[in-house]
Structures are given as structure tokens and as C-alpha cells.
Amino acid sequence: MFEPVRSINASPLKKYFSSYWIRSAFFSFLQRFSLTVFGFINFIILIRSLSKPEMGLWAFFLVITNLFESTKSNLLKNAHIKFVAASEGEEKTAIASSSLVLNALISFVFIAFLFLFSGILSNWLHTGKELERMLLWFTPGMIALVFFSHLEAVSQSHLDFKSVFAGYFSRQVLFFLIILWHKIYGVPFSMIYLPIYQSVSIVFGSLTLYFFGKRHLLYRFNPSREWINKILGFGGYVFGSSVLSNIYTNVDQLMIAKITASNSMVASYNAAIRVSALVDIPSYAAAEILLPKVSQVVKDGSEKVKYMYERMVGILLCFTTPVALFIILFPNFVITFIAGPQYADSAPILQLYMLIGIIRPVQNQAANILLYIGKAKLSFILNAFYLTLNLIMNYICLKQFGFYGAAIGNVITCFVGTFIWYSVLRKNIGIDYNNIFRYALFTYKTIYSRMGLALAKMKHVQV
């Protein structure tokens, strides 16, 4: 009978995949699923209500605001979780307070940047004054994100994924209901209204997150210079890696905007990106539940970290591969069904991005593992190389192949990057991709067996 390779004794590791993993996985996957699905539904409503240039403008707004939110969150949340997991008593409040101070300072700097330079940024992206106005109207939302991201980090550092799910779910639902009201009653969309709706939704999500997670708050504010320096010391390379990673994620849209000056082309790429994001739901959810545990067991040696990485990636491949293959085989059906026939030119882009989607869990989890085993500097260097390579390949391919060049450049970069991440992880924690494939096959076998048992029980009950 085929069994997966076990590099270490399985019995001590059972506890890591028992109640914590089931409970955490349920709420974390539910959070990521609802976040992606509601974002996807909102995208469908907007793409059928806005013109192609307006969708390109909305894509730029999301690129810039998501870059701010995810970068700040990765800097503070990762450091917050890592240090709280290894601390006790008053140290935890000092860490949380210091994290909140940095959170507010980063937000203030970004808001000041937008007030000073959003006009220049809008002109550089060939969007006129519209993007500048949208970014400035989102100022209340950026202030609300200070509280939302802090409460998220506090809840997650206590392994409370239920509260995080509630905060994100309520935030997404409110924005969905507002734009659904526009659609049902035929109220025209204004590009200025959308950032205002986003701000209101973030405020509502923050209140929900507070209500569910307030039991984790001690209501003491005692930041210290020592912990601010520690968070920055850990988060410096994390911050840099996050910035580079987020720029890499959106560099195709930014380069197309700069080179072609066409919001419509940006909208076509954005449509393919939003559809391909469905494949990433399991991967990002896995990161949410894997990292807090890695921060606790890393002191026990690399064998446990190796096991967690191989097992998690193997499971993820079981879910991402079938979905990606279906979309590769039927890209025109998928893109026209979701976005409409005017986005048919996105189908080849979607196919190429699905090739990336199959192997993306390998890279996503590898970057996170490096951060949590104390290799933040190495992760930053790899991300810097990765972004540089992607910029070069995208530029060459855009000049060589035209409209689809950025997608081709991304595929080339991704396959080169996967080989590099594999080499680095093999050297640092001794991973073996043969184990990953064996865990994937074992997972398929387990699912098939469980389904067979369930069907047998159903037949027995019917008889």
C-alpha cells in the first residue's frame, strides 16, 4: 500500500495536524474563500457596469491601495505574530502597543505621500485627475485600516481565526450590498463613490473585528523603543520583501499602462488576474495557519519545518491543479462567462497565468518559510532578484510579442524562480519535492477512500 515518506516520527507530529489545524483551517479557508468570492462577485458586477477604461482605472486604484494594505500588514503582522508567540505576560502588551505605533506612523507617511504625489502618480499612469481624486477620497479608509490591521494581528497572534474571518466577511459583505443596490436600482456608478464605499466597509469590518476579538485586548498602551526596534529589525527585510513581492504581482499591469498608455489593456489583464486568483485561495489560506505554528516549532529544528512545508504544499497541489487544468482547457468559456465577450482577448493571458497558478503554492510557502526560520535577508535578496528578472523579461517580451508579452514574461520568470526557491529551501531545510508529490498522491488517495466510504454508507442506508 502506498504511503507518504515520513522523514521524522509521525506520532509527535500528529498534534500539529489535529484540532488546531482543523479548526484554524476551517476559518482561515473560509476567510480566504469569502474574501476571494465576494471580491470576485463585486468584480463581476463592476465589470458589467463600468466601461473598459473605467475598469482599468478601478484596477489601478486597487493595485495602489492593496499594495499599501498588504505591505503594511506583512511588515507588522508577521513580526507581531512571531514575537507574541514567543513571549509571555507584559511583553505581549508591549509588542502590541509598539506594533500599533508603527502601524499609525506608516499610515500617516503613506497618506502624506498621496496628498503630495498622487497627482504625479496619476499623470505617470496616464489616468488624468480621476485616480488622484479616488486616492484622496480613500483617506478615511486608510485611517480605518490602522485599527483593522492591528486587531487582525492581535487575533491571529492568539490563533483566533474566527474573529479574523468575521472582520473580513462583514467588510466584504457591506461593500457587496452597496454595489448590488446600485445594480438592482440602476443607480449609475461614480468612480468617486467606490473609494468612499470601501472606506465605510473597512470601518464596519473594524467594528466587527473588535466585537469578536476584544477578549484578546488588555487595554494597556505601553510601547517601548526596544520593541519598536525589534519589530523594525525583524520587519525591515520583511517589509522590503513584501514591497517587492507586491510590485511583482502587479508589475504587468503597471508596465502595460506605462508603455501602452491604455486603460483598456490594463482592464483585460486585470480580468485574467482576478479569475486566476481563484486558484490562490487555498495557498494564501494555508499561509495564515502555517506561519503561527512554524514560529512555535522552529526552535525544535528544521525537520518539523520541512515536514510542514512538504505536507502543506502537497495538499495544496491537490486543490490547485484540477482547477488550473480546467481553466487552461476552457479559457474562452471561463473568461466570457465571467467578464463578458468584450474581454475575450484575456483568454490567452488567463491560460498562461494558470500555468503559474499550478506551481505558485511552492513559491508562496517557500518565501514565508524563509521569513520564519530567520532568513528574512535571504528572502529579500531572492525577491529583489525575482522582481528584477521579471521587469527585464516583461520588457523584452512586451517589445517582442506585444499585448501578450507581459504574460509570457511572467511565465518565464515563474519557472526560473521555482527552480531557485527549490534550490534555496533544499539547502536550508533539506526539502525534497519527491515527498511533496507523494503527499499529494496520498491526499488524493485519502479523499477517494473517504468518498467511497461515504457512498457505501449512503447505499447501506437506502437498502
What does this structure look like?
Helix content is 83%, strand content 0%. By secondary structure, it is an all-alpha fold. The chain has one domain (10-462). Helix 14 (347-372) packs antiparallel against helix 15.
As a whole number of angstroms, the C-alpha radius of gyration is 22 Å
Order of helices and strands: HHHHHHHHHHHHHHHHH
How many strand segments?
0
Largest sheet, described in full?
Answer: none
Could you state the oligomeric state of the chains shown? single chain
- The portion of residues forming beta strands comes to under 5%
The helix content is over 70%
Per DSSP, the total helix count is 17
- In the residues, how many domains can be counted? 1
Unreliable parts: 1-21
Shape: globular
From the N-terminal CA to the C-terminal CA, the straight-line distance is: 31 Å
On the 0-100 scale, what is the average pLDDT?
77
**Structural class, please?**
mainly alpha
Précis, in short:
With 463 residues, the chain is mainly alpha-helical.
From the structure above, extract its key features.
single chain, 463 residues, mainly alpha, 17 helices, 0% strand, globular, disordered N terminus
Topology record:
Elements: H1 10-13, H2 19-47, H3 52-85, H4 90-124, H5 130-137, H6 139-157, H7 161-184, H8 193-213, H9 225-260, H10 263-276, H11 281-297, H12 302-329, H13 331-339, H14 347-372, H15 376-401, H16 405-429, H17 433-462
